[in-house]
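new request in #modeling-help
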Amino acid sequence: MALSFIKKVFTFGKPAEEPVPEAAERELEPRSSDEDLPIAADPVLAEEMDTAGGPAADIDEALAEQEPVEAQSELLPTVDDLGDMGVVPLSLLEAEAEANADDAAVAPPSVPSGHLPHKGGDRLEDDAAVREEGRVEPTEVFPEEIPAEEAHNIPVEVEQGSQSLPPLVGEMSDRTEGDVTPAEAPPNPILPRGFASGPVAEPEPLVTPQPRLSWFQRLRNGLARTSSQLTGQIAALFTKRKLDDETLQDLEDLLIQADLGVETAMRVTDTLASERYGKDVTGEDVSRIMASEIAKVLKPVAKPLQLDLSHKPHVILVVGVNGTGKTTTIGKLAAKLSGSGLKVMLAAGDTFRAAAIEQLKIWADRTKSEFIGTKLGADAAGLAYDAFEQAKARKCDVLIIDTAGRLQNKAELMAELEKIVRVLGKLDPDAPHTVLQTLDATTGQNALNQVEIFRNVAGVSGLIMTKLDGTARGGILVAISAKHKLPVYFIGVGEGVDDLEPFEAEDFAQAIAGISQ
Ligand SMILES: Nc1nc2c(ncn2[C@@H]2O[C@H](COP(=O)(O)OP(=O)(O)OP(=O)(O)O)[C@@H](O)[C@H]2O)c(=O)[nH]1
């Protein structure tokens, strides 16, 4: 499965020709990581450490304009899905941990059963304060081990701010407190919970497995709000009306309001006018033309993510505004890559918040990826450099670096991201080989501004749009593609590990136009 899957999702480029220069002289203190990886010193000159400048109005406005994020999806991956990908489900990891806990073991109090450490609720001021006050020891990021009994008494719902995160794995949501004790953990971690090896009668499964939907069905379901709103309005517009200038204008307005963008709206109305002016038009006619025109816009940007594995590692830097799904997307990508037999390292370059580091660590564990993190508030560029060195030393195929998106102003954003790119370039002038930006579909038009900003700051080479499930604003991907013409590699339609799929222009265009395949 390994190579065929990789070929489907990623393509491979030519080997790099430029020699890798020697590491730059280092001047700063060595840092520690969560793993017992050897830690490199910060490659950045002391004078480079200062981030420049005061607030820049444009980014403040763009970030402030961001609309409230819509409700999170309930869609979750199943244990089977994870198994299909060669990823060990968190439930099994937990079972293993719980089995170990029987004797003396430990559970991180910040990561109770089935829950990711919460990432929301913390504020810029808090982050700034942490940075002001100085760096926090890693033990605060990964708290001291505690006795198993205490770990199991931790409430299932953790509230560390204004919201709590849903469980990672589908089966976790069915579990109630006290369902599982260390004594109940299966002795063999290869078997799912509730099964035992040997001649023991198998208990009835608690949940009847649901038939697995095809990707297109899941895409259709995810985009149902976008398409039903759009097709409903179009059907209402064309009830018993011939196509004239007025209906064309109304249709154009409607398509623009659906976030498709002026350019695509005009393409649809022009084609419709050329085919059916003065004639009766049905909603189906419009949907067909709309799907065809949208596909024309999307086809040039629907590209596979190119991995040049001769780099060892191919370095992917992931950027984007806070909450757009960077960390989750990194986890999903890591699952695909490591499930296909590649050696992956995840680097927690979002050093602003402890929970961001913890969440990435959990994704690394789940996906059997290597992990490198650093102290809260530490210099992200230094971590990126260390990560690159370690990934090289450990012969990783792919290094994926998370970054902070919660930055107060454009100058700080530019300084941090530019510095990361600069220090990576000291180890390989082509690095980062890919700069991915995550975009949250629910933010609508604001996503257009975000691409503008991060393109300029970080040299974004491709996009991943997340949260296309359950939003009525999926049309924004069409507007972004028409305006920026950047490759769109994947789309996210849920929080689960398998809710990330390669972007297919035809599928997306048909799903948004409400056309069945
Ligand atoms: N419904 C849905 N939720 C998603 C998707 N991708 C990510 N999320 C959720 O969005 C929330 C934010 O995702 P994160 O991965 O933490 O975002 P981030 O950009 O790393 O945020 P920071 O680390 O805070 O900068 C989490 O609750 C994710 O589970 C998606 O495709 N669909």
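bot summary: Strands lie at 10-12, 305-307, 314-319, 344-347, 370-372, 398-402, 434-440, 462-466, 488-492, 500-502.
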